[in-house]
Hints:
By secondary structure, the chain is mainly alpha-helical. It folds into three domains: 10-71, no CATH class; 74-351, Orthogonal Bundle (Fic-like fold); 367-449, Arc Repressor Mutant, subunit A. The protein is built from 20 helices and seven strands. It has helices at 10-18, 23-30, 43-46, 57-69, 91-104, 119-138, 145-154, 161-179, 186-197, 237-249, 259-273, 280-294, 305-311, 313-325, 331-365, 372-375, 378-389, 397-404, 408-421, 442-449; strands spanning 73-78, 84-87, 219-220, 227-229, 394-396, 426-430, 433-437. The strands form three sheets. The protein has a three-stranded antiparallel sheet with strand order 5-7-6. Helix 6 runs parallel beside helix 13 (305-311). The protein is elongated and about 90 Å long. It starts with 9 loop residues before the first helix and ends with a helix.
Amino acid sequence: MKIPETPPDIDEIFQEAISEPGELIKLYKWGQPTDLKGRYLHWDKLRHIDPPEGFTIKKWWAAIKLARQNLYKPINLLDTHQNEFKYVVPDSVQKDLHELTKNAAGNLFSNKEIINPGLRKTYLIRSLVNEAINSSQLEGAATTTPVAKEMLRQGRKPKDNSEQMIQNNYLAMQFIADIKSEPLTPSIIFELHRILTQDTLKNPEAAGKFRTREDDVVVMDPLDGVILHVPPKSEELPERMERLCQFANEENPQAFINPLVKAIILHFALAYDHPFVDGNGRTSRALFYWFAARQGYDLISFASISRVLKEEPGQYKRAFLYTETDQNDLTYFIIHQVSAIKKCIDGLFEFLKKEAEEIKQAEKQLDGKKRLKRLLNYRQIALLKHALKSPRFIYTTYGHQNTHGIAYETARKDLMDMAKKWNFLNMQKEGQFYIFEAPENLRERIELAKQ
Length: 451
């Protein structure tokens, strides 16, 4: 991956402008941190755009940087040279944050497409599974999504390192839900890393521990071997971790940071420090989810950020590099992540709309004299919806239990009733347990049952 071009030194540009009448005033009068289209661009992109009349490209960059410097908000997190990171929230991002705050902080079932609150746990479990898979695949896990989903649903042991990564991610997302009300501590981050890397590291002892001086850790592009980032020295990590936790926990009304922006900064900061020999990306994204959940952004828990990042891995890496190459300006990373979150939330609502329509179609199939849709619970109707599209699919009590987050006996009764009472599933014994199969003539069976 090509490293973005480092921006020109604006001090040199200002020195040149001083000797030209009116030029310095023109730079100060520009006054906006974006281009003419409202885009907050890095020099690597801006240099390819025609500047406004009366500007050279370098002078335009200097004018933009001057406007940014007047808007920068510094934060108490440092780079490897002990310089502060900072950021701007441009108008375009303000607008997206406003929309996200309204949507992401809302209750999932305030959405009119879904009216059964019992489905909340089902959708949350599904989202945890999706994020676990996507986050692991983003870091190189090779298992396909259907195979990974079935592994988690059925609770079978991972067969290889890729499946182990996915199972670990799933457990980590559950851990986040359990500790979201707790203030962040190094111990929590260590435990999060330990869960995420269990049985996947070359040195198992490195799970949940800082990398050491002997660990030669750099961030490289796997395709061409280019070094993208050199993290802080290992001896600096304890102090940097304490500073990160302090930043996460502090609430300063005089220096308010939008909670989603703060969650994004935490994501960046842990990835920048790279405190572990491996699993830093997964831990960083998990930290984002922890802070979003802690701040009441419930809908974020139902959206897989890693799915969007996986689709655009180059833009994800470039957002990090833009920040590093332009004087610790976090705005580039914030803009990228806000865009990714927005795509996730939009995708979630599209999914819920489609899901609601499919549930209605499944309920419509049950209309008849016996009013079956009133006799079946929401889990059974959801299973029926799936079975209608998946002939010969095998369901198990354990899988049904994991899908909906219910007790084993509740799951067993759901499936037994579907098989024995309604004849909607074929049932047979395998060893000590029963398995349930979606019949190919399910529609005909439904027609008979509802008469």
